[in-house]
Write a structure and sequence with these properties.
Chain lengths: 333, 210
């Protein structure tokens, strides 16, 4: 019996050890996002609360906590309350399979990449539920837009993942990273990396694809009726998803915890630190894109997803597999 | 082992309850959400018996794609109006015979299936294919699907393709007079054809046709 209790405590400890850094880094990343955005536009950004404004997100969270939660009278209350919970839970449980090192991973499951893909495809439910339950037109329109957008871009992300898997021969995230010891997949599969990056912008509803919350047309999209802590949960879930996409990109293409070159000063840096550096670099790209690029029109967004990215990534699957087959490089015999 | 059975009963209870709620609940959108919950708990059961690939694919395909489209359609329906027609109108009794016939057929089909069903405790001895424990689920599935069952696999793919093309053909209609953006034409436009200098006569104006 005491063994069981020990195991449970051990697991809870491990989960907390992963979850608390993720939540803290989400708060920090919001600050970073706003700072980068401000610097590109030659503003200061949040710089008052704490050193360099670092505590801005904490102050915001405190503000949200003490705000009143308003539930519209005609809303479907259960689903309305469930929606932000679903969003945040899904954004957090996906972190269970992200490996930060050979052994530094919460759940080292065989079908890790499928798990990540499945969880990110569930993310759309939080948005649909929020939009529908609000019983108001702007949230509903935003939810429909967002669902269509996320489903379309998921298809191309799936095909890109197949590209990577062809070179690895395993669905385990650790194996995917270890397969990149000689060369990171970003080099041979560079076009796929670009498409993955753009698709993940669309998947997380980031600018230039932030049509679900296009403030000029839809007030705030599916979040319009939300206030207080529920809004904050949507917001946290969104940024946790963005970080997750960055982690996915760094595992699939940038060699996860591996150092860029295996020589003296670089291989002293521990693996998790490399991983964090790569996630941060990808996030920097995310926030730069937000500052630089104007919003897409909706039909252009759909056209880009279905008529350009999907055929291109399918062609690349054929290219990759024929290349691997011809030169006898297939990972599984 | 205890933890295993606790989780099994947890997920199977949720699956059964949500399946019942799916048929019972009056709000159609709620029904779809219960359907999704059912899918998720069943894929959890798949993962628990070690069929992780099947469970994940079920999550991706059914929950991530099919149910989203389902939800789309259901949300577009006007649920309030529909309720009146189905539950309150006097002629709703005309649906009952059809429903009765269908449910009888399904009942007898299930009866036949359950009647011929025997529980085999050692299933691994009964199947002809070798099970390699060191191989992961996905590898084993790939080894079978792409070698022994390649024709069936291709056939099912063909059926899906035909269904997809059929859906597109059925819904596709050519609309007249729709202004479309042609990116090729936009980019290949030259200054000569885009800009025109016209001497405008006084009190007459200019008429363009585009």
């Amino acid at each position: 019996m005491s063994d069981n209790i020990f195991i449970i405590f051990n697991e809870v400890y491990k989960i907390l050890f992963l979850l608390i850094p993720v939540l803290v880094s989400v708060a920090m990343i919001v600050w970073l996002d706003r700072r980068v955005w401000a610097f590109v536009q030659k503003r200061r950004g949040p710089n008052v609360v704490g050193p360099f404004g670092l505590l801005q997100s904490l102050a915001d969270a405190l503000k949200y906590m003490f705000k009143e939660i308003i539930i519209p009278a005609t809303a479907n209350k259960v689903i309305f309350i469930l929606a932000p919970i679903v969003t945040m839970t899904l954004a957090l449980i996906a972190w269970a399979v992200i490996p930060f090192n050979n052994y530094f991973v919460l759940a080292d499951i065989n079908a890790g990449i499928l798990y990540l893909f499945a969880i990110s495809s569930l993310g759309v439910y939080g948005i649909i539920m929020g939009g529908w339950a609000s019983n108001s037109k702007y949230p509903f329109l935003g939810a429909i837009r967002s669902a269509a957008q996320m489903v379309s871009y998921e298809v191309s992300i799936g095909v890109i993942i197949i590209n990577v898997l062809l070179c690895v021969g395993s669905l385990n995230l650790g194996d995917i990273v270890l397969a990149q010891e000689k060369i990171w997949f970003v080099v041979p599969l560079f076009p796929m990396f670009v498409i993955f990056f753009i698709s993940s912008l669309a998947e997380t509803n980031r600018p230039p694809f932030d049509l679900p919350e296009a403030e000029a047309e839809l007030v705030a999209g599916y979040q319009t009726e939300y206030s207080g802590m529920m809004y904050a949960m949507f917001w946290l879930g969104e940024y946790a998803n963005i970080l997750l996409m960055c982690a996915m990109g760094s595992i699939l293409f940038l060699g996860g915890w591996l150092s860029p070159i295996d020589i003296f000063p670089f291989n002293l840096v521990p693996g998790p630190l490399w991983m964090i550096i790569k996630i941060l670099l990808l996030f920097l790209l995310f926030s730069l894109v937000k500052a630089i690029v104007p919003r897409y029109r909706y039909d252009q967004l759909m056209r880009l997803g279905w008529k350009i990215f999907l055929p291109l990534s399918l062609i690349w699957v054929i290219l990759t597999s024929s290349f691997l087959f011809y030169f006898d490089l297939l990972p599984v015999k | 082992m205890i933890a295993h059975s606790i989780f099994f009963y947890f997920f199977s209870t949720i699956a059964v309850i949500s399946a019942i709620m799916l048929t019972v609940s009056k709000n159609t959108v709620h029904s779809v959400f219960f359907l999704i919950l059912d899918f998720i708990s069943i894929s959890c059961l798949f993962i628990m018996i070690g069929a992780e690939f099947l469970g994940m694919i079920m999550l991706i395909v059914y929950v991530g794609a099919v149910a989203v489209l389902f939800l789309f359609v259901v949300m577009m329906l006007n649920v309030a109006e529909q309720k009146n027609e189905w539950f309150k109108a006097t002629d709703s009794t005309s649906h009952i015979p059809v429903g009765f016939i269908i449910s009888t057929i399904i009942f007898f089909e299930l009866l036949f299936v359950v009647g011929g069903w025997k529980y085999k405790p050692n299933i691994s001895n009964a199947i002809s294919l070798e099970i390699n424990d060191s191989m992961s689920n996905t590898h084993a599935l790939g080894n079978i699907i792409y070698t022994d069952y390649i024709h069936l696999f291709q056939l099912s793919g063909m059926i899906l393709l035909v269904a997809m093309i059929g859906a597109i053909v059925l819904t596709f209609r050519k609309r007249e007079g729709v202004k479309k953006q042609s990116y090729f034409r936009q980019i290949s436009r030259e200054k000569e054809e885009g800009v025109q200098l016209i001497e405008v006569e006084n009190n007459k104006g200019v008429k363009f046709d585009d």
